[in-house]
Amino acid sequence: MTGRRLAGGGGPVIPNFGKPSSCLKHNGWFCTDWLHAHWGDILQPALVQHVLLTLLAVGIGFGIAFLLALLGFRFRLLNAPLGAFTDVLYMLPSIALFEILLPITGITWTTILIPLVAYTLFVLYRNTVAGLRAVPGEVLESARGMGLTRRQTFLRVELPLAVPSIMAGLRIATVSTISIATIAAFLVADGLGKPIFDALEQPDIFKTELLAGGVLVVLLALVADALLSLLQRALTPWTRVR
Amino acid sequence: MPTEAAELVFDEATKVYPGRAGAAVDRLSLAVPAGEICVLVGPSGGGKTTALKLVNRLIPLTSGDIRIDGTSILRHDLTELRRSIGYVIQQVGLFPHMTVEGNIGTVPRLLGWPKRRTRERVGELLELVGLDPEQDRRRFPAELSGGQRQRVGLARALAANPALMLMDEPFGAIDPIVRTRLQDEFLRLQQELRKTVVFVTHDVDEAIKVGDRIAILREGGRLAQYDTPQRILEQPVDDFVADFVGRDRALKALALRTLGELRLAPVGNVDGLPRLGAEASLRDALALLVAERCDVLLVVGADGEPLGVVRREDLLA
To answer: How far is Cα B306 from Cα A117, in angstroms, rounded to an integer?
Structure first.
């Protein structure tokens, strides 16, 4: 398997570790000494890469989904085909996609990002269109009656009112991307998938590393969701009143 | 506040929806003098809302013309036309994501008013419609009651001091007690502002109460009668109008006159007589007499001083 760093056989591989603790010798569930020793050289870089991958995937995905949503909202006939297109993308198995992309884009982040971005489109597109469409008819009528132009109605009324739905989509897309991005390590040695894969490849699964990687993925998802939730509250003060 | 108003003329205004048999509004011709309230009333399918929306071109005319102060609406730029006309609808349509201040300031912002002037104007309008200029301006529509929302809707329509107001069943979704209060406040405001108003309602009583003139539209958007409330009640042109205003039209006509307009008999022994203010309507006076099983009532002034007595026969004369 290209790009995957295979570990040597025979017990947990613990580089530069002179005196393994008894926890490590017995491959315990959670060896804090290993965490202390390898936060800096394994976990933290993986976490940073994971955050970057997620930001890029969700950022690019949101950009594309937003443009598609503008088309699907403005031209009603396009909505169904665009929705179906994002559905199909969502159904593609990521591993198959890697194999197809590999000869074209090689062992790069591009190959990882293409499927990650593709998966975000489904929820981001649907939530953006749904949010824009959900603006009540009487609100649009009063906007028109007061002499807002089509563009002003979109920018001042429809778009701000769609923010809660768009933000809900962003939260789902971000959390699921954080989870899916672990498969990046299948191809490149980056992200929180790497410690997980490394741990799994030991003849006797290295529990501490596996758990550390998994827990960090969950924590990252929780923190990202909380931050987006705070952002949503700040952007939509009107949704908090009675 | 400068009070200016525009004369509004419907000239054979017609709307035919493509693919539908018959017109929605059929050669409607009527003139609303500057500063008056014209109520469009009629059964559903009478085209009253359509007629209203023809004015700010939310619905385009099929034929005929509508003129504001002599200039055809078709010769105005569409967005400028709409910004110069106040528009109030039944569901209010406040922007949920904007505060009361943001909502009321919408048209002034579009017109590029300086921020300070818009802020001052918002305060002025809140006071005018009976809301707190300090507290309420920062609230969101979701925090307001139905009546308060409609007040904000009215303030928003008045923001840029339009010469013409279009009001589409503005009090239709509000409970009867608050509706009566809003109608009274609206009439009091109109005393002050003297706008030209086109007011749509399906409620004859509201039409009689609010309108300087009433246009009764029948199915197919044809004008049945255009007259003052008094004349509509006393001289309906045909059975349709008579039926529409109802069997109790004589009573409704009584509601239009106040005790103060009658010649009162001198005050004699007033002990035990029911009393009513001079501003009360003849209808209320009659209701009181029926309820009290009396023939005479005492009319009192603002400070409760007796002005004279009225007999039941005087009311019905």
So the answer is: 84
CATH number at residue A126: 1.10.3720.10
User: Which residue type is seen at B218?
Assistant: R
User: Pairing mode, if any, of strands B71-72 and B63-68?
Assistant: antiparallel
Does the beta carbon of A150 lie under 8 angstroms from any beta carbon of chain B? no
In the sheet that holds B25-32, the strands lie side by side as B25-32, B8-15, B63-68, B71-72
Q: How far out from the chain centre does Cα B232 lie?
A: 16
Complex ipTM? 0.83
CA distance B94 to B100: 9
Contact residues, chain A, for B93 at CB < 8 Å: 136, 138-143, 145
Domain count, chain A: 1
**Residue B261 per-residue DSSP state:** G
Interface probe for B, chosen from A132, A154, A238, A242 (most Cβ of B below 10 Å), is A238
**Domain boundaries for CATH 3.40.50.300 within chain B:** 8-254
The CATH number of the domain covering residues in B8-254: 3.40.50.300
Question: CA B280 to CA B259: how far, in whole Å?
Answer: 6
Cβ B87–A142 below 8 Å, yes or no? yes
| A82-113 pLDDT, tens digit each | 999 988 888 888 788 888 888 888 788 888 88
Six-digit token pair at A203?
A: 């003849």
pLDDT at A202 over 80: no
pLDDT recorded at residue A242: 61
For the segment B241-291, what is each residue's pLDDT rounded down to a tens digit?
999 988 888 888 888 888 888 888 888 777 788 889 988 989 899 999 999
Tell me if A167 sits within 8 A of A232, measured CB to CB: yes
> A86 vs chain B: nearest CA distance in angstroms?
30
- Rounded alpha-carbon distances, angstroms, from residue A58 to A131, A158, A167, B128, B129: 18, 23, 12, 49, 47
CA distance to partner chain B, nearest, from residue A150 (Å): 10
What's the pLDDT score for residue B2?
A: 43
- Provide the shortest C-alpha distance from residue B225 to chain A (in Å): 28
CB B34 within 8 A of CB B70: no
Question: B140 vs A241: CB contact, 8 Å cut-off?
Answer: yes
For chain A, how far is it from start to end, CA to CA, in angstroms?
56
Q: Which of B107, B142, B143 sits opposite A146 (nearest CB)?
A: B107
- Architecture of the domain spanning B257-316: Roll (3.10)
Digit-coded pLDDT (tens) for A109-148 = 888 888 899 999 999 999 999 999 999 999 999 999 999 9
The answer to whether A147 contacts B58, with C-beta atoms less than 8 Å apart, is: no
**In Å, how far from its chain's centre is CA B253?**
18
Query: Does residue A24 sit within a domain?
Result: no
